[in-house]
């Protein structure tokens, strides 16, 4: 079975790609993901996909309407009948694939919600939602979502008649098993010994709320000068956040680590994980942190599915000092049951991947 994944980019900074690859690595040879993308890509990502017997296809951005349609029509002509399923990971673009059964010969169209909003900013959310309502809400046969909140927020009550399935953002949980030696090594390597490390992993975008993170961190420094803030990720707002940190006089206390290929090692060096998101489909990095046993401090916008063990929930309307006091109270309080609790919650890719394989085959057969 071949499934065409519609995805924005093939980079380590893409949460959608991260989730897809976690499953692809664990699938047996009966299920393949091919990727149609229109954004950035990284050579190592494409090489890994190809090493797994899968393919990648670069097309013009849908924002360049005519160029995209031209590329899409060429793609359909060349690859008609090669795919069983089209799975679109950007539901607001559903309308572009309205005729994919006729044009590409797929048996099913799946729309997959990875977030609870259609865009990072207020403007993009409104624009994309309107576009979805006008062109795309009646396109899919099946609905996927990382949480029930994501399914309900994106697809609403309009598609109640359609089958919907929660597909967890599963991962290799054993990579995140707490290890004293790993923690010691990474803290030595990054000069974190004797410091209180507040960690955050996420793309530099409005969704992840980095400006509020800086405010919280500034309040933490009033409680102890041993605090350091570690920000992992890339994104369009990174330079702006660096400038803001310099303006606030706290830049020398912050490490911007950029993209990291092995988060499982970095995260074990943290003392607390901070995640004040404006919205989330799930918040997989918060789940990974809990798997390590880290205390996590999150906003009220993080879905219940991501709240498993050793977590604290605060409101974004709360003063940064309240967040700082919470962080100061829980930092370094590791949980010994993190791994087992995350496995019990269904995030082990070793179990989730075979389950998703069976679902694909059942959907096509039915």
UniProtKB/TrEMBL annotation:
Residues 183-328 form the Glycosyl transferase family domain. Signal peptide: none annotated. InterPro entries: Glyco_trans_1 (IPR001296). SUPFAM superfamilies: UDP-Glycosyltransferase/glycogen phosphorylase. It holds the Pfam family Glycos_transf_1. This is Glycosyltransferase. It comes from Limosilactobacillus alvi.
